[in-house]
Amino acid sequence: MSARKRTVVLISGRGSNMTALIAAASNPDYPAEIVGVISDRANAAGLGIAAARGIATKVISRADHSSKEAHDGAIDAALVSFGAEIVALAGYMRILGARFVEKWLGRMINIHPALLPAFKGLDTHARALRAGIRIHGCTVHFVTLDMDDGPIIAQAAVPVMVGDNEDTLAARVLKAEHRLYPLALGLVAEGKARMEGGRTVLAHFADDADNSTSVVMAPDPLREETDLEHLARITP
């Protein structure tokens, strides 16, 4: 097995997707290792989770820097100090500047709680419910200059249930995120997903053939139990 790709995760809060990546990387056969976690908020709960798992953490607050460019520069310096090869945004709530994004282009990925290109930005679950869509989900994509607009690496879909509110839908999508992000990071770390010419290219990768027949359908009402006696009466 080739050397695992050194990955640094950027967070702003609880770090649940960060935790999913750390769990995946605890397997020595996983192609990426999480070597550091950076937060722009000192009170981010994910910092404690990472530290408890023996992962180096660093707080780089916007308030401690004179400008956005200086803040981006401090993050970049920290990434270099960690020896980062891949940057994974996991609930990082600040928009990174053009110079920073261009430096890490093709090596920085993000997870978004919607099926892009639909519902870019914030409040995706509430907006999905207001729109009345029946299928929702999440997307992992390469980060480019435009927010939530980079080439898509992987997506996962979930049904929107009849009785859903924002919280129940968010919880369902989050479970999908925790499965999707480790998959996508693994593809990038192995070189099976790369950004080329503004698109994601999948190479040396075979999809699960069973996946071609899978369907997420909503609403999908409960079926009544079959009345075998009735079937016997009407069956010749």
TrEMBL record:
(6R)-10-formyltetrahydrofolate binds at K68, M93, R94, I95, L96, N110. N(1)-(5-phospho-beta-D-ribosyl)glycinamide binds at G15, S16, N17. Pfam families: Formyl_trans_N. Its EC number is 2.1.2.2. Keywords: Purine biosynthesis, Transferase. It is an enzyme of class 2 (transferase). It comes from the Bacteria. Belongs to the GART family. It catalyses: N(1)-(5-phospho-beta-D-ribosyl)glycinamide + (6R)-10-formyltetrahydrofolate = N(2)-formyl-N(1)-(5-phospho-beta-D-ribosyl)glycinamide + (6S)-5,6,7,8-tetrahydrofolate + H(+). Residues 5-185 form the Formyl transferase N-terminal domain. CDD domains: FMT_core_GART. Catalyzes the transfer of a formyl group from 10-formyltetrahydrofolate to 5-phospho-ribosyl-glycinamide (GAR), producing 5-phospho-ribosyl-N-formylglycinamide (FGAR) and tetrahydrofolate. One of its GO terms (molecular function) is phosphoribosylglycinamide formyltransferase activity. It comes from Mesorhizobium escarrei. Pathway: Purine metabolism; IMP biosynthesis via de novo pathway; N(2)-formyl-N(1)-(5-phospho-D-ribosyl)glycinamide from N(1)-(5-phospho-D-ribosyl)glycinamide (10-formyl THF route): step 1/1. The active site is at H112. PANTHER family: PHOSPHORIBOSYLGLYCINAMIDE FORMYLTRANSFERASE. The record marks D148 as: Raises pKa of active site His. This is Phosphoribosylglycinamide formyltransferase.
